[in-house]
Design brief:
Radius of gyration of chain B: 15 Å
Structural class of chain A: mainly alpha
Helix content of chain A: over 70%
Number of helices of chain B: 6
Shape of chain A: globular
Pfam families (chain A): HSCB_C
Largest sheet of chain A: none
Radius of gyration of chain A: 21 Å
Largest interface: A-B, 19 and 13 residues
Oligomer: heterodimer
Distance between the termini of chain B: 50 Å
Helix content of chain B: 40-55%
Protein name (chain A): Co-chaperone HscB C-terminal oligomerisation domain-containing protein
Number of domains of chain A: 2
Domain Co-chaperone HscB C-terminal oligomerisation (chain A): 123-193
Number of strands of chain A: 0
Number of strands of chain B: 3
Order of helices and strands of chain A: HHHHHHHHHHH
Strand content of chain A: under 5%
Number of helices of chain A: 11
Largest sheet of chain B: 3 strands, antiparallel
Shape of chain B: globular
Family (chain A): Belongs to the HscB family.
Strand order of the largest sheet of chain B: 1-2-3
Keywords (chain A): Chaperone
Amino acid sequence: MLGFLSRGFAHKCKALMKHPHYCKLFCPLCYDEAQAVLEAGVNYYKLYIMEQSYLIDKEDLHKKYKLFQKVLHPDVLRSNGITNPNYSKFLSEAYQTLSCDVQRGKYLLKLHNENVEDFAMDDIEFLEEQISKRETLQQQGARAAKKILREVQKDEEELKKCIDKGFKQENWMAIREALSKLSFLQKLEEEAKDLEEL
Amino acid sequence: MLKALSLIKRAYHPKVIEYYEQPKNVGSLDKGDKSVGTGVVGAPACGDVMKLQIKVEDGKIKEAVFKTFGCASAIASSSYATEYIKGLDLNDAMQLKNSDIASYLHLPPIKLHCSMLAEDAVKAAITDFKKKQDN
């Protein structure tokens, strides 16, 4: 019955399953239980064994993601006779949500049963600043990209601190507004990075 | 680059490409001018930002210009919106619906928010102009 546990897999499995939480979630020995847990919907933070807060250790998240994906990759599972590939997809979804500063904020709002709809941006001054920076990028290209990138990243750090504070004080409006601003900054950052690479 | 362009061509309707490649009414007007109304809007979902300005004479929109940073549909939507409202009086311009823009440009459902953004920009510009007259 446990024939699917080839030695290699069992070894990797043990390495991963040191944490009791993971044993429950993913160990093939606990397959039925794992299935039930996944279907019930697992909290992404719990999945990656992280404290449920807005600011997270992204390096730690990335390391765990890589490790878990290695062990739970559909090919690895299949070669061990496990045909359910949901694990890998679920790990990716959770990773992508947690690693994006905007998505993570919205996810955390959802966990607090708060509205996650996009905040209608009415801060004209902020939008005008975005337009003027996008214009500068368009006109000056790579020359301006470095400077703008530095500015944007600094602004993003400020907003992230503001969002973190918002969660601690349960100030949902402030969080939504900051997340909305962060979306625009991410777009600007993306554009500046593209130009820098050219 | 060429590959990217051909991808755009395949994904967008010819009407969008026409406006994207040769957008009409790109520019800006003096924000401080009392006869100028400015609308600045943005869509957090995609990070697009749009500025649309109108110059009003005798209750009619004499000039309409825009600057949009975003996808081809957003640029086409705002360009078409400026064309549409030029020459109209303010009340008629206020009637512009995002569905007018979307159907003219054959926007797919996923790009409808671009036309809504353009509608919002027009309304914001008109509101800004009216507010200026009250002061």
